[in-house]
Amino acid sequence: MAKVNGKRGRPAMHSSSSPELERLGERLKAVRESEGLGQADFAARFGLRRELYGFFERGVSEPGAELLMKISAECGVSGDFLLSGREPMRQAQKGALPFDQAVMQKCSVLARHVAAGQNPPLAPQAEAQLASELYEFFMGKRQ
Q1: Are 134 and 142 in contact (CB under 8 A)?
Q2: For the segment 48-68, what is each residue's pLDDT rounded down to a tens digit?
Q3: By C-alpha distance, which of 97, 92, 77 is closest to 27?
Q4: I need a surface site. Which of 20, 51, 77, 78 has the fewest CB within 10 A?
Q5: Residues with Cβ < 8 Å from 43, sequence gap 6 or more?
Q6: Alpha-carbon distance 12 to 6, whole Å?
Q7: Is residue 104 predicted with pLDDT exceeding 90?
Q8: SS3 readout for the chain
Q9: Per-position b or e across 70-96, b if 16+ CB within 10 A of its CB
Q10: Cut 0.85: pTM above it
């Protein structure tokens, strides 16, 4: 191990504590809790050690822009919320669009058949179409 300040241990991370970083940490904690995850599980989801993620939540260290964008995208939260706290964490969803309802109906039928141990009721072409619709939906290409 490297010597740090005359002691054996890990090299010190660049960190600073400020009210702004502390507020960012509070928003990160709110996102994590809204996902129903503890620090260890949330950190693992993004390829981080729990200790490092804990530094972010406590406002001891600043997460990079790439991580914030990833959290925003994967958790469905506003990037502006993470950065400034000015926007709501998640935009209120209006009613489901017809596309959403159709996809959800297909998924419901498919899930019931799979849960009952039955072969899915979809022909290979219909299965491929559903997979494509789900991909487009979750990637935000359809609204």
Answers
A1: no
A2: 999 999 999 999 999 998 999
A3: 77
A4: 51
A5: 49, 50, 52, 53, 54
A6: 12
A7: no
A8: CEEECCEEECCCCCCCCCHHHHHHHHHHHHHHHHCCCCHHHHHHHCCCCHHHHHHHHHCCCCCCHHHHHHHHHHHCCCHHHHHHCCCCCCCCCCCCCHHHHHHHHHHHHHHHHHHCCCCCCCCHHHHHHHHHHHHHHHCCCCC
A9: ebbeebebbeebbeebeeeeeeeeeee
A10: no
Gap between the Cα atoms of 40 and 49, Å rounded: 7
Q: How far is CA 56 from CA 4, 32, 82, in A?
A: 22, 12, 12
By the 8 A CB rule, do 6 and 12 touch? Answer: no
Place of tokens 């990637």: 139
pLDDT at 143 over 80: no
